[in-house]
């Protein structure tokens, strides 16, 4: 099997697995316990928190510094950001008619949280994108300056699209939000571990990440929150993490998170070039083999590992199944929405034709992908495309 779905999740790196095994053996205590084993676990947990935060441009070492809250993953981190920052008065959990701005291309964990706030009374407005999947900054400025509504409270725009890989002008957006005194959150889940991501350099108020997107463990994520930003908790029942995200913290998962971050920092430059080279090789082979193929967001700033490509005349869901039968794992979009037959909201927001939307698949390479695998994967994908085009059933064709 050739794995080209690294945007959904990445295989855990051996170095990370070894670090987690050591942590499980060496730190068996509950970090909240007062005895020596608990204190040892706490020290290791805080070491992980500090190193991860530092790697992502945050400082959690001072008493009133930035915060890094461990969560169960990217979805919880995004929900904590939207619900925790979107509540107008954390003391009484009051929802006012304050505006909430999110982009049209957000992950389901942002969209659903935003819609939940809307049911509670928030004024939800959508930031449009252009045909390159980039937000329209001039429209953001107009929404922020609109005095016919109450002042916006929160803006949330993902750093990089999980479907097309398109990068957003986050630093420019942050400047605009600061100008109007509006909080800014970014879902950096797909970007972390592929490009450098920094809370400070981006100028955002909160940032979501998870290590299973860059060769770390599943089951853990983090929300970084800038110094001075107030956050309302969404879980209750413990004092851990200043009661903002209670629950027993896993030293083993935190150590895996830290090890994945350390591995990225060690490989960053080489990883970027490796991923970009393989992605470009795959795009060339597929476009050379199918003159009708259309690559989305080509020539625009994007993540190095992501290829969003349409094969007009071929149903995307049938293609995913057919390619899987040929031994290549790809997807038709976000893994969190893969069970849905609905067309991609991201591609629709870009204004693409129905034919392109319905024939688009997402391919994503990884650090262990080889040029030989890319060549073979392209051959198998093109074989499946050709068979579907001539109307054969995905379950009937066999390769000769």
UniProtKB/TrEMBL annotation:
<dbReference type="GO" id="GO:0031071">
    <property type="term" value="F:cysteine desulfurase activity"/>
</dbReference>
<keyword id="KW-0411">Iron-sulfur</keyword>
<dbReference type="InterPro" id="IPR015422">
    <property type="entry name" value="PyrdxlP-dep_Trfase_small"/>
</dbReference>
<keyword id="KW-0032">Aminotransferase</keyword>
<dbReference type="Pfam" id="PF00266">
    <property type="entry name" value="Aminotran_5"/>
</dbReference>
<dbReference type="GO" id="GO:0046872">
    <property type="term" value="F:metal ion binding"/>
</dbReference>
<dbReference type="GO" id="GO:0008483">
    <property type="term" value="F:transaminase activity"/>
</dbReference>
<dbReference type="InterPro" id="IPR000192">
    <property type="entry name" value="Aminotrans_V_dom"/>
</dbReference>
<keyword id="KW-0408">Iron</keyword>
<comment type="similarity">
    <text>Belongs to the class-V pyridoxal-phosphate-dependent aminotransferase family. NifS/IscS subfamily.</text>
</comment>
<protein>
    <submittedName>
        <fullName>Aminotransferase class V</fullName>
    </submittedName>
</protein>
<dbReference type="InterPro" id="IPR015424">
    <property type="entry name" value="PyrdxlP-dep_Trfase"/>
</dbReference>
<keyword id="KW-0479">Metal-binding</keyword>
<dbReference type="GO" id="GO:0051536">
    <property type="term" value="F:iron-sulfur cluster binding"/>
</dbReference>
<dbReference type="InterPro" id="IPR016454">
    <property type="entry name" value="Cysteine_dSase"/>
</dbReference>
<dbReference type="InterPro" id="IPR015421">
    <property type="entry name" value="PyrdxlP-dep_Trfase_major"/>
</dbReference>
<keyword id="KW-0663">Pyridoxal phosphate</keyword>
<feature type="domain" description="Aminotransferase class V">
    <location>
        <begin position="2"/>
        <end position="375"/>
    </location>
</feature>
<keyword id="KW-0808">Transferase</keyword>
């Amino acid at each position: 099997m050739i794995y080209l779905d690294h945007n959904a999740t990445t295989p855990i790196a051996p170095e990370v697995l070894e670090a987690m095994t050591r942590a499980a053996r060496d730190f068996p205590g509950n970090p909240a316990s007062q005895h020596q084993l608990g204190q040892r676990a706490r020290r290791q947990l805080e070491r992980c928190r500090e190193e991860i935060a530092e790697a992502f441009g945050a400082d959690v070492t001072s008493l009133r510094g930035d915060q890094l809250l461990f969560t169960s993953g990217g979805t919880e981190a995004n929900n904590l950001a939207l619900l925790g920052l979107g509540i107008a008065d954390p003391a009484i959990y009051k929802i006012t008619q304050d505006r909430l701005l999110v982009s049209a291309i957000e992950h389901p964990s942002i969209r659903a949280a935003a819609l939940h706030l809307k049911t509670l009374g928030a004024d939800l407005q959508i930031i449009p994108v252009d045909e390159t999947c980039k937000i329209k900054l001039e429209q953001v400025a107009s929404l922020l300056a609109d005095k016919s509504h109450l002042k916006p409270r929160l803006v949330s725009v993902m750093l990089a699209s999980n479907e097309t890989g398109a990068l957003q002008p986050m630093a420019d957006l942050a400047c605009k939000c600061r100008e109007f005194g509006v909080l800014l959150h970014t879902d950096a889940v797909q970007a972390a571990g592929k490009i450098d991501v920094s809370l400070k350099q981006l100028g955002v108020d909160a940032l979501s990440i998870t290590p299973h997107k860059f060769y770390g463990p599943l089951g853990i994520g983090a929300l970084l929150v800038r110094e001075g930003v107030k956050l309302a908790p969404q879980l209750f029942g413990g004092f851990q993490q200043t009661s903002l995200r209670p629950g027993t913290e896993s030293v083993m998962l935190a150590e895996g998170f830290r090890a994945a971050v350390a591995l990225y920092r060690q490989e960053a430059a080489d990883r970027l070039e490796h991923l970009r080279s393989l992605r470009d090789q795959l795009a060339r082979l597929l476009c050379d083999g199918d003159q009708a193929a259309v690559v989305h967001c080509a020539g625009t700033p994007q993540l190095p590992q992501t290829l969003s490509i349409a094969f007009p005349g071929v149903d995307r869901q049938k293609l995913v199944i057919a390619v899987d039968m040929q031994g290549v794992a790809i997807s038709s979009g976000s893994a969190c929405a893969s069970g849905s037959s609905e067309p991609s909201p991201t591609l629709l927001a870009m204004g693409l034709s129905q034919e392109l939307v319905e024939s688009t698949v997402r391919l994503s390479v990884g650090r262990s992908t080889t040029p030989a695998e890319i060549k073979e994967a392209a051959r198998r994908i093109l074989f499946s495309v050709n068979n579907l085009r001539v109307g054969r059933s995905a379950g009937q064709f066999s390769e000769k």
